[in-house]
Design brief:
mainly alpha; 4 helices
Length: about 100
């Protein structure tokens, strides 16, 4: 995997965790904190070499696609750009950059 693609994913993981913490501290949303932590933990596992490279790449794409759906549903329900719209855009960007620079 191209170094840039890995950096993009690590930045995304950090922002995903920060978003979950903000959701918890601002709105008391345990679901945001737990779901962001679970998704981030699995994404971290894909980066540790625990999975074969193609399996890890596919798992990352599947997880990012699932997050796309989650954030799109939240955006449709709330009609508010923050935070779901921003995370939707960030997820699209991450998915695109990782697949563009997969090397």
């Amino acid at each position: 995997m191209h170094h840039f693609a890995n950096v993009v994913l690590w930045v995304y993981i950090v922002l995903l965790l920060v978003g979950g913490m903000i959701g918890f501290f601002k709105a008391g949303s345990k679901v945001s904190l737990i779901s962001s932590s679970v998704f981030a933990a699995v994404l971290v596992l894909t980066q540790t070499g625990i999975f074969e490279t193609n399996v890890a790449r596919n798992l990352v794409n599947i997880l990012l696609a699932a997050l796309l759906v989650v954030f799109a549903i939240r955006l449709a329900k709330t009609k508010k750009f923050m935070p779901s719209g921003m995370l939707l855009g960030l997820t699209i960007l991450t998915l695109a950059l990782r697949n563009l620079f997969k090397g």
